[in-house]
Amino acid sequence: MKTTFSPFVPDRSPSATITFDRRLFPRRQTRGVFQLHIAREPQFAFDVLFPSPFGVDTSSVVGENAPGSTPPSISGFARGKFLRSIGIAFDTFLPKFVAGMGVVLTELALEVKFTLELGFEGLLLVFSGSWSNDSAEITAQTILTPMAVFLQLE
Question: Cα–Cα distances in Å, from 69 out to 37, 57, 64, 116, 129?
Answer without folding.
Answer: 37, 11, 10, 36, 27
